[in-house]
């Protein structure tokens, strides 16, 4: 956490709902809510340009100045995005005490070039780009650096292997979550092999041996006989002559 806590200026929001929130955004504001510490939630609006600049810089803890209320310390808990996942449309803050322990997400910054990337076809996977930790509000880091220069092909760094910057910090994220991994990119073959597999379910009979004259045709493999047993003669077919006495 920085020595100087950034300040956010806020205003009360009297009207709630998606329509009024959109009006706030259209006017250059950012809808938000503050809750916690046994007090009722308060709907507020922030100056969007200023707030978003702090969010993108990785700031988590703020001094909130709200008209009619005493200055309070708040922790950014959640950001909500639009349906495209690109623009921040709402923020949630929790009231905190500077000496209490809180749980928060911290970004992971990979440092260095992994030696495994020198191999042809190798790529760096970064499935988890932030981890959740528990620590004092004053100790929340802006980000955590992970050195990956010695990472080779088929090797990985898990969340449990990430060195936390504070001794009393505790990892909340699953320790087996993969933070970084070097793998060889595999080519997906589409062609004869795929076609063969797709066509194996129901093979089409292109040619079939015709029965010899006077020989009954054999039913196709898997075909079921007609109900009642043997096939009945077609309507109008000649009946065999009765034997002479």
Under CATH, the topology of the largest domain is which? Ribosomal Protein L25, Chain P
CATH class of the largest domain reads Mainly Beta
Q: How many structural domains are formed by the residues? A: 2
Query: What percent strand?
Result: 35-45%
Shape designation: elongated
Distance between the ends = 116 Å
User: What is the average of the pLDDT values?
Assistant: 80
Number of strands: 13
**What is the number of helical segments per DSSP (H or I, 4+ residues)?**
3
Give the fraction of residues assigned to helices.
Answer: 10-25%
Rg, please? 35 Å
Strand order of the largest sheet: 1-3-2-6-5-4
CATH homologous superfamily of the largest domain - what is it?
Ribosomal Protein L25, Chain P
pLDDT < 50 runs, ≥5 residues: 194-217, 219-238, 240-245
Most strands sheet: 6 strands, mixed, barrel
Q: How would you spell out the order of helices and strands?
A: EHEEHEEEEEEEEEEH
Could you walk me through the main structural features you see in this protein, from its secondary elements to its overall organization?
The chain is mainly beta. The chain has 3 helices and 13 strands; from the N terminus they run E-H-E-E-H-E-E-E-E-E-E-E-E-E-E-H. The protein has helices spanning 18-26, 48-56, 192-199; strands at residues 7-12, 29-36, 39-47, 61-66, 72-81, 88-95, 101-111, 122-125, 130-136, 143-147, 156-158, 170-171, 178-184. The protein has a 6-stranded mixed barrel. A hairpin with a 6-residue loop joins strand 5 (72-81) and strand 6 (88-95). The chain is elongated, with a radius of gyration of 35 Å. The model is unreliable at 194-217, 219-238 and 240-245 (pLDDT under 50).
